[in-house]
Write a structure and sequence with these properties.
The chain is mostly beta strands. It is built from three helices and nine strands; from the N terminus they run H-E-E-H-E-E-E-E-E-E-H-E.
Amino acid sequence: ALAAAALLYTPSMPASTITQIIIGSARVQAEVADTPAERMQGLSGRQVLNEGEGMLFIFEEEGNWGFWMKDMFFPIDILWAASDGTVISIAHDVSPNTYPQAFYPTEPTALYVLEVPAGFAKKHSIAEGEYLEFR
């Protein structure tokens, strides 16, 4: 019984790595999702994403990576970036109500995807062509 109880308190996956991203004049403390399980979970089930926080999805290869709002509780901006960090596409103010619609980059060359609170890109004047700088 003790072993079973202990298992209840074991996190299902190790704590994610946090990286700082600078984009334009903004800084984001981003949780890194770089395994299939972490990417599948994403921000689903979270109650809030505070200003200055985000989630960075890193893929093994460039692609046309689609995102949907399954089990999401708040709207987000989704930024797709190429291997050199150039933002190639932005989906603004994506609402949980859009599920099961999926959102894709305008070009199938995304290696990184950054999810930030809705309105972040407009608030910080972030547009396609900006660079994600990893610290």
